[in-house]
Amino acid sequence: MIQAMSRAFEDFPGGTRLISSTHRVTADAIMEFARAFDPQIFHLDPKSAEQTLLGGLAASGWHTAAVSMRLFVDTMDVAGGIIGMGVDELKWPNAVRPGDDVRVEIEILEARRSKSRPGYGIIRIRNVTKNQRDEMVQSFMANALLPTRGS
Fold it and tell me: Among 28, 68, 71, which Cα is nearest to 46's?
């Protein structure tokens, strides 16, 4: 059973800006994610990682993306779901390190009703993930489909 929506498309006009809570990334979480999904030495072994280009243990970009997605979903708080339609310009300019506290800054660039899917709206977003030093660790642009109020 779907819960009543707490937010809907109408709550995100162009120009809306939101900032998520923070999430602490631990060494254990970095290594656990890497074992399952990105088994490269700089994500798996702190000692060996020191000898790589990254100079130490670092989260996979895909781990950063997964954490960012959780923060995005929690911040948007759309019980009816947000359907991604595509991501553009995905970048990981700085590594996420053990102990980093990351947050997502969301900007709604534009919002319009879907012509092909009544009851839905499309938002164009810029998501920027930053660490506690305000360094950008991920950025991307995306389009997403959200239910409208009462749909």
Answer: 28
